[in-house]
Amino acid sequence: MKNRIAPHRKILHLDLDAFFCAVEERLNPELKGKAFAVGGSPEGRGVVTSCSYAARRNGIKSAMPMSRAIRIYPELLVVHSHYKEYTIASRQVMEVLRNLTPLFEQVSIDEAFLDVTDLPESARQIAGYLQTKIFQDLALPCSIGIATNKLIAKIATNVGKTKNKGMTAPMAIMEVPPGDEEKFLAPLPIDEMWGIGPKTAVQIKGLGIFTIGDVVKLQEEDLVKKLGKYGYVLAQHARGIDDRPVAEGDDIKSISNEITFYEDVNDEKELLNTLIKLSIKIGYRLRKKGFSGFTVRLKIRWPNFQTHTRQLTLLQPTNQDSIIIDSVKTLFFQIWKKGLKVRLIGVGVSQLTEDFQQLSLFDHKNEKEQRLLKAVDELHQKFGEKAIHRGSINHNHRNWED
Fold first, then answer.
1. Which residues does the annotation mark as catalytic?
2. DSSP E strands: which ranges in 45-97?
3. Res 119 pLDDT > 50
4. Rounded CA gap, 375 and 358, in Å?
């Protein structure tokens, strides 16, 4: 009996095109084809959360201050966010994907991986089916990358989308055939590597690395010397090697903690100290379970029991205390004003994904924090979570709730 060669994996990465804008167009069809941005008011400190492709053709970008966007293109329409509708739309899309295969992994509100190796149809046929179904049934455009692993599929999606120069959603499908992974990556700028942010790209270019192919030309030992343990990860990824499975993992959707105070609190220092403590605990739990999260959430309840939440979605997933703390402080000052009393306060991280070494984090500051966090986590495991904490934190609270 001849040995059977294991088939190459068929991995899809699906990314909804300008998702928030697509949902807004679904709510208000008159927006279709127009230059508009979703986000905060230009009169305040609002930023562009998402922008239509027509707006992008006029120089508007996500994360740009809305006031600047208006200066660049005065005819820009500003649409305020409808987060509840975005959540509903996301669930509708993910349900379509789950019904296709149990090997499914949602990595953010608008993107997911699927392993369709065991399905008889070709990966391209499946991608075409999904793209058509989601657009016809849900009026949401999407782009799909196809490859033998998650890394290449993700990058393929991005490359396919960037080829679009029109005024409408790209609706791209790009496939990287088995065996062509390294060839596909080689000419791409180093910025295209998944996990490398703008600051990291500058650092790497300083080493004479401008394309992903430049990484392969260097000895792995040299990369490790220059970049530490991240050099090994980069060397593997530059060759298109990524064996991570597609899986949701323990069915954990979010990790959160909250405190109900014995007495209502309006002291800014005490409230911030409480947020820091909650953030540190969540960071520890994320690292312990091997997760990172894209979305940081703040929950506040006033004495009259009215409850408000705010959330911030990061460009990359994190489990670092400092990033969670900075994010939740930003959210806190969006809600709380001096003198307001607080009955309950909570912090959560959601849109969880399997943790991986983020190449955007190997600057000296973050390397130092990673080492510190590892040491602190070891103390927590040995002596319990109360063994060590940052700063002085008051304990005027009634109970903890997970």
1. 111
2. 48-51, 77-79
3. yes
4. 19
Helix H or strand E segment including 317 = strand 307-318
Lowest-pLDDT range, 53-62, 185-194, 280-289, 385-394?
Answer: 385-394
Mean pLDDT over the full length of the chain: 85
For 255-279, b/e burial (b = at least 16 CB within 10 A) is: bbbbbebeeebeeeebbbbbbbbbb
Domains annotated for the chain, with CATH where assigned, are 1-178 (3.30.70.270), 182-238 (1.10.150.20), 254-401 (3.30.1490.100)
pTM to 2 decimal places: 0.65
Instruction: Determine whether 385 is exposed, middle or buried from the number of CB atoms within 10 Å of its CB (0-12, 13-18, 19+).
Output: middle
Which single residue is written with the structure tokens 């009634």?
Answer: 398
> pLDDT per residue over 281-318, tens digit each?
999 999 988 888 888 999 998 888 777 888 888 878 89
In the chain, the largest separation of any two C-alpha atoms, in whole Å, equals 79
List all residues 6 or more positions away from 296 whose beta carbon is below 8 Å from its beta carbon. 311, 312, 314, 324, 327, 328, 331, 347, 348, 349
